[in-house]
Amino acid sequence: MKKLIDLLSEDVKKAFVFKGYDEKYGIVTLSNRPDLCQYQCNGALAAAKEYRKAPIIIAQEIAEVLRGSGKIKDVAAFNPGFININISDKFLAEYINDMRKAEDFGCEKEPAPKKIIIDYGGPNIAKPLHVGHMRSAIIGESLKRIFKFMGNEAIGDVHLGDWGTPMGLVIAELKRRKPDLVYFDESYTGEYPEEAPFTISELEEIYPAASAYSKENPEFLEEAKRITYLMQNGHRGYMALWKHMQDVSVTDLKKIYDSMNVSFELWKKESDAQPYVNDMVDYLKKNGYAHISDGALIVDVKEETDTKEIPPFMVLKSDGATLYSTTDLATIVERMKLFNPDRILYITDKRQELHFELLFRCARKAKIVNENTELQFIGFGTMNGKDGKPFKTREGGVMRLEYLIKMVTDEVYRKIMENRDMDENEARDIAAKVGLAALKYGDLSNQASKDYIFDLERFTSFEGNTGPYILYTIVRIKSILEKFKETGKSINPGADILPPCTPLERDLMLQITRFSDMMHLAYEEMAPHRICQYIYDLADKFSSFYHETKIISDENSEERQSSLISMISLIQELLKTCINLLGFEAPERM
Q: How many angstroms separate the CA atoms of 517 and 176, rounded?
């Protein structure tokens, strides 16, 4: 189903052609002066230069032709050459009824569907998720849902960090604390215990302790590096402990991600790329892509057109050890072999932009990806406290993600209990959904690359541009529909939506029609904030309409009432579809 604005453009293009001008000048846009008109065309201003005619004359000619269009209510030319357009209420209603009948509200999908791998997790095992992991998960999950909605195959990969020195530090600290564990007995040849010698809480305490201790004791850090080397080369005891760390960590990670309504098709790890490293290094050497510099193996990725200094991409350190860059490149090799994706998208802190620029250049120079494979990086900004600095706990530390979620949920619960007489268990269930909406909407309503202020009071408010306000609108519509049924009437799913009777109803219907335009922008720009803006405008216009209009009233004819019920049902479905794309859902009541 074509977008409404494209249908208008077709008529305007025909008018330009009819008057002897190129159709390229007939592009219609949303009006930047909604107080004057709904849509506008500025093509006459550009056409004037080519055809050596005053733009107002061209605009008047086009306006005269368009007055015969059934889609248009009124059209006028204004100096210096603007064409202002208002569509007919009949056409508006017809378009919305077509939306209701079409799959996914008539949104046209990707004409050439792609296979897209999205790397949006990135936590390390043996360490708890903290607020720094939140944006990657929230943005990545929403983009994955948007890609799927638009007809693509989208594959989310958590890509766990499990192969570097942090693993060696944990094992070294465990050895320091419990040297008698069988994993450290070099003469032991039996099977290792199935149960890990630590809980997730103990494991999460061990790493920061080991990291702090290593800074004061260089010999301990060297021991950790030695253990890392031995682990990566198959030491039985260390590999067994490493496997325990994975199992305990992943179980906990899945629980937290589930609470955030975030899922991954792949639970791949950094270590999964290791089998590809040796062949990849040989390939880079044999084909002349990599060379030795100061003992390290590097690939020069600087290009002649560069105006800034671009460092080389390091594949191996001078001692032959691998780096994050090594495993990231090997992961691309793995992904191309296993999935052959059309696009690989990475979502991380924007401070990693240079790393990914070098990685992509190396992958392309070495022909590790196909010529048409897209490699993209979305760098997100920082979630800051009200002081403008990265969000911290009151003690100044990095807050664990589960504590942040609890803090938001508890605040929503407090507000619910202040204003409602409700069973505690039901209030807790509602608070969990509303709290998640507050957190996700608070994040996604900002452009991903921008920093933003985490404001608990504003995010959890039931008024304004917030997640709870959107959910409240959905629940309010549900309540209206239930009250309608209680009058003894049934909802007629086939009832047409009639042309608008008031300016507020017209504004609301115009906002409904912009769903497809918004989805294409959100998809093309990889911008969930476009969805947030659309649903806020839709909810806000519904609120204005609701306060002016008696929906369930004997004053309305049966046809008019059925029309209103059909329209608000459509709005509810649009809102529910959009919040699903953002990664949260509405409770039954609030």
A: 60
